[in-house]
From TrEMBL:
Superkingdom: Eukaryota
Keywords assigned: Signal
Signal peptide: 1-22
Record's keyword annotation contains Lyase: no
Name of the molecule in the record: Phosphatidylethanolamine-binding protein 4
Presence of keyword Signal: yes
Length: 204
């Protein structure tokens, strides 16, 4: 009887272990770093900071803890910080989705999610995006079954005495935005820093 009792206790403990492991695992959320070539886009130490998770630059947004759903439905605009910004210079911040409606057929590529000009470098150093809002922030909302989307942040130095504006046509539509023309029209040149994160629909 004593042996049988010992066996029963051992079996009970073994049955409890998986649930304990599962419970511990459910509290662990790993933000996986982007693989090549997506990782190459990240340069200049640009930080994109959301509540609860911190800097999501150059990473996948995991599904655990409801992070993808919160990103799409609850969280507002992130803090964007560039520690190397020149205090007295102005910058232009662009946030776009180059994978709209999906990465295989991005016919609406460079869907504009956020566009702000006249950002002072002193504000940018501490993550305050204050300036002229040309496109209000729109959270990432990838369609179901469209796979991962890249959400890219591009930071440009704004030429002195240059007023940045959208054309009437661009104001009417967020999708299929000609980012290249916009950059060339205002002489923005190459981004001084850029980063991105990848996420998909929270139901997928």
């Amino acid at each position: 009887m004593k042996v049988l009792g010992t066996v029963l206790v051992a079996v009970s403990l073994l049955l409890l272990l998986p649930s304990a492991w599962g419970s511990e695992a459910s509290h662990t959320c790993v933000f996986q770093t982007l693989s090549e070539p997506d990782h190459k886009f990240c340069r200049g130490e640009l930080e994109v900071i959301y509540p609860e998770v911190g800097d999501v630059s150059c990473s996948y947004i995991p599904k655990c803890q409801g992070y993808r759903q919160k990103l799409s439905q609850e969280w507002g605009k992130p803090r964007v910080r560039f520690p190397w910004a020149k205090k007295n210079k102005k910058y232009v911040l662009v946030m776009v989705d180059p994978d709209s409606p999906n990465r295989a057929n991005p016919k609406h590529r460079f869907w504009r999610h956020w566009l702000v000009s006249d950002i002072l470098g002193s504000d940018l150093r501490v993550g305050k995006i204050k300036g002229k809002v040309l496109t209000d922030y729109s959270p990432p909302k990838p369609p179901r079954y469209s796979g991962y989307h890249r959400y890219q942040f591009r930071l440009y130095r704004q030429p002195a005495q240059k007023t940045i504006a959208l054309s009437p046509e661009d104001k009417e539509s967020l999708g299929a935005w000609d980012l290249k023309d916009f950059v060339e029209d205002f002489g923005l040149g190459h981004p001084v820093a850029s980063t991105q994160f990848l996420t998909k629909n929270h139901m997928d």
